[in-house]
């Protein structure tokens, strides 16, 4: 293998740059050329390639976002456009790909392999931590700490005013972010899609707390929660408990940005190195993840289709920690 | 004067604790007893007084929120309840008050003086910076930096995806927070109530930017903006510019919390000292503010009724800085 | 078991308070009384016990330091004083202990058990991460992120002036902090006690870097590094490479403080719960750690005497990532 | 004026990039070309010029350090080398300069004007805040907040162990940083060059505190303090008060780095705009500062030679706030 390409795709996540840096430097270390593809599959179709040097990734390990940019690309579902993308890769001399992203990213890579035989290794880049085959995804720890910092701030004002706050966090249909920042933030209740809860449960918790001396409460709601989003649940709670001063805060896109945490920089670096080394060893159609602190390659098929379980025992913790 | 009381009232702001600490320590330094009143006027009516010692304010200078808590108290508008509050103060031996808060707080103190003659000095505690008689209010600098940090994070993801973000910040009907964090965050446009802007202006700015190579944009919207809130304006922009990827983030209550910045701790300390020393010098019905780095006492009447001007020349800066 | 005690001992670490909170709330959840012992073994000898309620640990999950304080206590090595401590515990009705700390803390607990039969379970609280029987110790992740943040700041000025910085970080005789913040901070070289390096190696690395266009460099030095501390090594490097602008920064005690990270709050909570539940199940003389994300109890003997290996393969990463 | 140059010189300071951005964008706004000179006077001698576009300063407003780099340049004291520098400027078509830096920077500019008549306007870029003619220098507020954050962390561990910490902060021979972060950090004593203090004073303060229940103490020492540095003073205190557990932390170069605070970004932007507009109005040999929130131009001569007074009344505050 003489030349590879690296790109980021899907929602951006802190640590993607650290991963790009690791891919570039590892390739150069092994004497392989690297190009970056801007805006993921969009750039592959447009032929938006940039040569990467050691210098071009210098001082990016701590930068949020992705210097290679990311974009949606619906056209890539059409084999006609995948052909265009593939032809651009061939023209550029690209013999292997490192794809940093999530489910959609890996699905695209699988199709590209199936259709045209270009090998790809993926690195799990998403704040949601919802990929099977790795304990942590790149960006998750940073997003959790960003949300936690926000919850700490909200608790300041909640305590000062004896208020109840429903805080909505990201995570698509997974409760990983909600669970971590909820436990870390001392939330009185954490609502995640993986654990059936009813509005009555929520109201009962707030009610029992409200009988003590006017307490503050934090309820963390995962965005994919089935019984509704934070505004909806808060509205129901207000109706049932008119004496409580109930507010809502949707943390939103701040959770995607910021300088990556130590863990995100380190796992991004390790996964990036493993991706390039995997390509050199002939691996293909797999994601480089970390399980029990060891690099593990998981097929894209499993990474996409198998369900990563949230440890709902953690919910028991919440009950104990609020006794 | 042998005994005074201190309380916080209205929306909480980072630095209120630093101010409480300064009031308590200054009183003790001058040989005066101090009690804290919990939950502002609510606690004055309820007789919720706590004796304050040097130790009870130790290590709070860096804490967000207010250890004395805050609350709304509609009853205080009724002289009957003010009488109850006053009687409680007399029973406790309180001869003067330090009120940390904003407009509503000072209005209450004025009435208390008018009705019963108990002297109050105010300290401007509000993140909004909308009080006449002081360059900065306690909490403003922290809120601006919190909002700025959020905007920096949002820019990471905006840049990665070439998106436009409408970011709504606090400030009630004043644009101080929006202006500071907008300039500091490199916003392409800042919408404040003090400066008439139309949706067409916003669209024109985004359009001219959008014609360059798919740029990201940040538009900061003050919550009191007359043409509508961030969601409303974003909706209009989406209709007019369907090719742009437009998102909204409402920063919400995180702006009220967090450990106060250096400036907020220092001005809170200075204003707290000045409030107690003002009481000792016989001052009354005034707010201790800082203008041009000097302590200035302004009558509650002026502080409440005069309009503090936002320097709209700063808006010209935005235009220059985005050229 | 009707009553237990909890204490913190040895060097303080961020997350100790989260652990104290978990111990207290778990005990209360199981209907057990809890007292806190102030200043570890010192307080046990002095009988400095404070009853703990759910309220007394409220809002401490995010606080640095330890509300129970910590202290050295050389007297505890003498059985005479351990007898005094034990008698105080008996008088207080304490039937079990949770000890949050490191090696020295667990050694004391072992002796107490051996002499008087009072059961203890330990929680690994130290920023150094040098305890066998757990992947992470409480405080480690926070200390790493604090050091990383400092390195990021130092890199700003190093880059601006083309300087080389030797940054000394904590870790006693272990290189865990150095390795994590070195990789996360993009350090060009990381010196840890576990990996023999010579001053010549350091000079060779700096020399090869210095031949490129006046670069900046970060060299992270663990405090226990055998070839000498950061000042000593920097001095040698200056002598060998007089053209480089070499500076030293010893990060010092900032690494012990600050609000704990999400991971530290969560592992502290999990370990604290496990400690109390372990006591209830009759466990004794063991530390509750987390290995591969599962609670594991390790005998104090092993935790103290077995050597936790630093993955020196990570050092290879440094070489690759700087190519 | 058709073309100007901008450079940074002397010690780097957070916000220098925000100032560079403002200079570049303001020049372009007025139809003037801009080049950046890398490494200050060093680059002027070497002819190290880079053309600046609006894009080349995009997303740097929040970056620490200086993208134009900085360096010492002793040769510039020699008119022979200043001639070389001047000739390079002429060759490049540069008709005016914006110099971001401190005393040394402005001295160089004065000489360049005197010898060859090239006009310069300065922007005060130094964390030390020791320049006459401006209330704040660029980088000061960020450095204070960085030092304050470190002091908060140190207090966590000081409180946990009842320790006394001597914390040394930057500021050369001025006590501005020490004073601000000392008051903000609740320091029990602040030693600044502007206020004569003796070691006996320090010992007396620690002694009176030490008689209360084993308290923690923070003493902030400005690096230029005449009675000696933090290590020296701490050593004397240890000898006099052997029962206290006294430690030293020298915060060092972290104070120079990091993303600039809101205030630093805003004043840097305002001063940068004012520098370019000043050049266009024919101003010369002056520094653009901000006094009482208004742009004021001060001659280099005054900025360099007049002494900016530290408000030593603030020291009285420290005494009151620790009562």
UniProtKB/TrEMBL annotation, chains A, B, C, D:
User: Where is Mg(2+) bound in this sequence?
Assistant: 103
The annotated subunit structure for this chain is: Homotetramer.
Its localization reads: Cytoplasm
Q: Which cofactor does it need?
A: Mg(2+)
Checking NCBIfam families in the record gives:
PFKA_ATP (TIGR02482), PRK03202.1 (NF002872)
Q: What is its EC number?
A: 2.7.1.11
Main localization (coarse): cytoplasm
Q: Where does ADP bind?
A: 21-25, 155, 186-188, 214-216
Span of the signal peptide: none
Q: Does the keyword Isomerase apply?
A: no
| Record field: catalytic activity | beta-D-fructose 6-phosphate + ATP = beta-D-fructose 1,6-bisphosphate + ADP + H(+)
Q: Which domain of life is it from?
A: Bacteria
Query: EC top class, in one word?
Result: transferase
Catalytic-site annotation from UniProt = 128 (proton acceptor)
GO cellular component terms attached to this protein's record:
6-phosphofructokinase complex
**Magnesium as a keyword?**
yes
> Could you say how this protein's activity is regulated?
Allosterically activated by ADP and other diphosphonucleosides, and allosterically inhibited by phosphoenolpyruvate.
Briefly state the protein's biological role.
Answer: Catalyzes the phosphorylation of D-fructose 6-phosphate to fructose 1,6-bisphosphate by ATP, the first committing step of glycolysis.
Recorded source organism is Flammeovirga pectinis
Please state which protein family the record places this protein in.
Belongs to the phosphofructokinase type A (PFKA) family. ATP-dependent PFK group I subfamily. Prokaryotic clade 'B1' sub-subfamily.
Q: Where does substrate bind?
A: 126-128, 163, 170-172, 223, 247, 253-256
Enumerate the PROSITE patterns for this protein: PHOSPHOFRUCTOKINASE
Q: What name has this protein been given in UniProt?
A: ATP-dependent 6-phosphofructokinase
Where does this protein act, in terms of pathway?
A: Carbohydrate degradation; glycolysis; D-glyceraldehyde 3-phosphate and glycerone phosphate from D-glucose: step 3/4
